[in-house]
Design a protein that fits this description.
One of its GO terms (cellular component) is mitochondrial large ribosomal subunit. By secondary structure, the chain is of the alpha+beta class. 22% of the residues lie in helices and 29% in strands.
């Protein structure tokens, strides 16, 4: 409704505002820019999809991975979902080497997720913990906060290794 009003008035179809001159057109263009910036800020965060670079938050040796394929969902992966990734940066003496194709569990996502109590959780970065084919973590420590939603997804071992549960 407001967008159609703004577009009609910017074309000069608004007879009520015609006498006010350029001040109204400046006001309307400012309002259009403000709504556009609000739209961009709300829709900036997306699913973890193909070619998304994620930070590795365990001591497996990998530093950064790039998502090859999310294993569930059409749009992409969210908190607690499993992905297949390629290691882009790795420590020289780690268990995981650069170029290896690994599985990982998303433990932090920049996209917000609603909780049962009505609150929402979102993080500043996208982070993953590398797991083996049986679903057990490769590393022995998990750094940073981990959401308790992983318990529903049957990743209890990651929660046990985490230093802080959010």
């Amino acid at each position: 409704m407001a967008a159609s009003f703004v577009s009609k008035c910017s074309r000069g179809d608004c007879s009520l505002l015609r006498g006010l001159g350029t001040n109204v057109s400046n006001l309307l263009s400012t309002a259009t820019q403000m709504t556009w910036s609000n739209f961009l800020s709300q829709h900036r965060r997306t699913f973890i999809q193909m070619r998304t670079v994620l930070k590795v938050v365990d001591n497996s040796g990998a530093k950064k991975v790039m998502c090859i394929q999310p294993l569930k969902g059409k749009k992409g992966a969210r908190l607690g979902d499993t992905i297949i990734a390629s290691v882009k940066e790795a420590a020289p003496n780690g268990k995981v080497k650069k170029g290896a194709v690994v599985r990982g569990v998303v433990v932090r996502a920049a996209m917000q997720r609603g909780r049962c109590d009505g609150s929402e959780v979102k993080f500043d970065d996208n982070a993953v913990v590398i797991i083996d084919k049986q679903g057990q973590p490769v590393g022995s420590r998990v750094f940073g906060p981990v959401p308790h939603e992983l318990r529903k997804k049957k990743h209890v071992k990651i929660l046990a290794l985490a230093e802080h549960i959010a």
